[in-house]
Amino acid sequence: AQKITQTQPGMFVQEKEAVTLDCTYDTSDQSYGLFWYKQPSSGEMIFLIYQGSYDEQNATEGRYSLNFQKARKSANLVISASQLGDSAMYFCAMREDVREIYNQGGKLIFGQGTELSVKP
Amino acid sequence: GAGVSQSPSNKVTEKGKDVELRCDPISGHTALYWYRQSLGQGLEFLIYFQGNSAPDKSGLPSDRFSAERTGGSVSTLTIQRTQQEDSAVYLCASSFRLAGGNEQYFGPGTRLTVT
Question: Which residues of chain A are within 8 Å of residue B44 when distances are taken between CB atoms?
Answer without folding.
Answer: 110
